Amino acid sequence: MENELINEGGFKYIEKGEGKPIIILHGLMGGLSNFEGVTSYFPPKGYKVLIPELPLYSMPMLKTTVKNFAKYLKKFIDHKELEDVILLGNSLGGHIGLLHTKLYPSKVKALVITGSSGL
User: Fold this and answer.
1) How many C-alpha atoms does 52 have within 13 Å on its Cβ side?
2) What secondary structure, in 3-state letters, does the chain show?
3) What's the whole-model pTM score?
4) Total domains present in the chain
5) CA 32, CA 36: separation in Å to the nearest integer?
């Protein structure tokens, strides 16, 4: 099953399923396709899986900070009108998830990190 990239509201992302939102945050060298297993496993169990493409290479270099990526994630969550999100971050994505949860805790239900920087 191939995941279709949605381009909407200034965001590029994959979205699969309906239900409780899980947002996957990829790492510096990670591609959205790395999470095919997640996008096929969780939707049948009542979760909406969203994988935003972080603007690692499209953002001006001096603005590519973890804090700016955390702000980008907040804008994405607001754009999708999500509540009680589960953040799952890998590597740099984990660092972004950590800072986002610290800065904007009201919309985060849970945080799962793997191989995260920033610990």
Assistant:
1) 28
2) CCCCCEEECCEEEEEECCCEEEEEECCCCCCHHHHHHHHHHCHHHCEEEEEECCCCCCCCHHHCCHHHHHHHHHHHHHHCCCCCEEEEEECHHHHHHHHHHHHCHHHEEEEEEECCCCC
3) 0.91
4) 1
5) 8
Is-contact 28 66, C-beta < 8 A? no
1 domain-assigned? no
Give, in degrees to the nearest 5, the angle at Cα 81 between 8 and 97. 90
pLDDT tens-digit map of 29-70: 766 667 788 889 999 999 999 999 998 888 888 888 999 999
Q: What is the CATH number of the domain that holds 58?
A: 3.40.50.1820
